[in-house]
From TrEMBL:
Organism in which the protein naturally occurs: Leptobrachium leishanense (Leishan spiny toad)
Record-annotated G-protein coupled receptors family 1 profile domain positions: 48-299
Taxonomic path: Eukaryota, Metazoa, Chordata, Craniata, Vertebrata
Topology term for the membrane: Multi-pass membrane protein
Domain of life of the organism encoding this protein: Eukaryota
The protein, known as: Olfactory receptor
UniProt-listed Gene3D superfamilies: Rhodopsin 7-helix transmembrane proteins (1.20.1070.10)
């Protein structure tokens, strides 16, 4: 798409406004090879997170608060992967970089919504570990399955409601600047920088949304683990301390995988103006692609109950009296 055509698009013709996404700047000639690891990462995310969701849903022994929260985390990771999959693979497979405004706003909404939900789930998991370690005798009465379901509903409602105004606030702008976005998918802060209008309202609301989600969530996680660490240090016996802390390893890894790339991406956008244009793209891809891939691997390795139940996802049965075996989901 030429600059002339794009200028007509942004100057108000009947053609819907569109943007150009970018893949890996300077590596366009090797997109075919780059698509291989990206495809494998998406496949790993789908298989890993889908398996955890199925396990918790079908195994009665895993229908406990800790595992229900884990299935929520897997669901949000799976949703983030599904949201970014169409545009990223279309770039690397088909070299198709154009995305219309409506599609961009839709992707933006779901991407930010599921990211906010994942942040909320991480807080709920931190509270789960806080109660389990600091008040273990009341754990079963405080955190029941019913309470966990209500917590999940609150997390989903918060994410949906906070992000809901953003696409409508963004849709009203005329876009007459450069049409090139900075990533392989649509982000709110990336889109509004192309608007030729006052974006103060969007910027302020975006900041408030971040503070009400990731800001508050990170604060609650830090407070929870500060209290957990204080409780663990008061336990007599190194073995008991190690056992208590070992129950938090998976969640700590999930928190670090979520927040460290996010902080790194924010630092790069703010202070990396003279850095390679490839750096923020890589940081954004790490932020959205690595947690959905690594989280199910960590939980499958470190959680004995999950590891033992994975083979039970698939069972064998005879079909039509024939001595033939197929894989099927265990009822």
């Amino acid at each position: 798409i030429t600059e002339r055509v794009q200028s007509k698009i942004f100057n108000g013709s009947s053609i819907p406004a569109s943007f150009l996404l970018i893949g890996m700047p300077g590596l366009e000639d090797v997109y075919g090879w780059i698509s291989i690891p990206f495809s494998l990462m998406f496949l790993t995310s789908f298989v890993g997170n889908g398996t955890i969701v199925l396990l918790v849903n079908r195994e009665p022994s895993l229908q406990q608060p800790m595992y229900i929260l884990l299935s929520m985390l897997a669901f949000t990771d799976l949703s983030v992967s599904l949201t970014t999959l169409p545009t990223m693979l279309s770039i690397f497979w088909l070299n198709s970089t154009q995305i219309y405004l409506e599609s961009c706003l839709t992707q933006m909404y779901f991407l930010h919504t599921f990211a906010a939900m994942e942040s909320g789930v991480l807080v709920a998991m931190a509270v789960d570990r806080f109660i389990a370690i600091c008040d273990p005798l009341r754990y079963a009465t405080i955190l029941t399955n019913s309470v966990t379901a209500k917590v999940g509903l609150v997390i989903a409602t918060r994410g949906i409601c906070i992000v809901f105004p953003i696409p409508f606030l963004t849709r009203r702008f005329p876009y007459c600047k450069s049409h090139r976005l900075s990533h392989s998918y649509c982000l709110h802060q990336d889109v509004i920088r192309l608007a030729c209008a006052d974006t103060t309202v969007n910027s302020l609301y975006g900041l408030i949304a971040v503070l009400l989600t990731k800001g508050l969530d990170s604060m609650f996680i830090i407070i929870s683990y500060g209290t957990i660490l204080q409780t663990v240090l008061s336990i007599k016996g190194n073995d008991a301390r190690v056992k208590a802390l070992s129950t938090c390893v998976c969640h700590v890894c999930a928190v670090l995988l979520f927040y460290v790339p996010l902080i790194g991406l924010s630092v790069v956008h703010r202070f990396g103006k003279h850095a390679s244009p490839l750096l923020p793209v890589l940081m954004a891809d790490v932020y959205l692609l690595v947690p959905p891939v690594i989280n199910p691997v960590i939980y499958s390795i470190k959680t004995k109950q999950i590891r033992q139940k994975i083979p039970n996802v698939f069972s064998t049965r005879k079909v039509g009296g024939l001595d033939r075996r197929i894989f099927t989901i265990k009822p």
